[in-house]
Amino acid sequence: MNSWNEGYFTDSTYTFGYYRELSPNFIRWCLTLKGFVAPEVDENSRHCELGIGQGVSANIHAAANPGKFFGTDFNPAHAANAQELAKASGADAKFFEDSFEEFANRDDLPQFDTISFHGIWSWVSDENRRHMLDFVRKHLKSGGAVYCSYNCLPGWAPVAPMRELLKLYDGYHTGGGCNRRTR
Ligand SMILES: C[S@@+](CC[C@H](N)C(=O)[O-])C[C@H]1O[C@@H](n2cnc3c(N)ncnc32)[C@H](O)[C@@H]1O
Prior knowledge:
Elements: H1 24-33, E1 46-50, H2 56-64, E2 68-72, H3 76-89, E3 93-96, H4 100-104, E4 112-117, H5 126-139, E5 140-148, H6 160-173
Parallel strand pairs: 1-2, 1-4, 2-3, 4-5
The protein binds S-adenosylmethionine.
């Protein structure tokens, strides 16, 4: 696709939410409960989040944990906000304005103990999912952990009618004016 947003909705910026599922310690705890050997969270740890949104979770985790934190979001407003937060907190965090494809092709990133993506998989194209997997293939340490959330039924069933309603509104009332994803 040609435009920077690759068909992803960018008419407005994302919310300022915090999600504990992205915490390297929470990931470690969940894996440990299930009997898996989980990556340590210490000074040598490297963590990465794809699609950081406003970067609230990434910044809280960077400020509250040892190690280095990285992330990207192709929305310039999101990346700028995440960078501002990191500057204000002084945390060891580096945030980029790269698309997943660009990020996967960087040669200045370390190997990561954890790679996370929350609220992304269900919302991006197959092509972008391939770029995310390409990133994991290239940048996950042996023994590292990947966290991926996705929407499924029946959990999302109650919200589906609202989504349809908004889609109809966009299609009929505004003539499909907002830059929706194409599939
Ligand atoms: C639904 S939001 C989730 C944000 C954050 N992970 C959270 O849970 O709060 C999806 C984010 O992915 C970013 N995004 C979508 N496609 C992308 C791409 N191809 N490359 C980089 N970022 C992308 C969007 O800009 C948006 O901030």
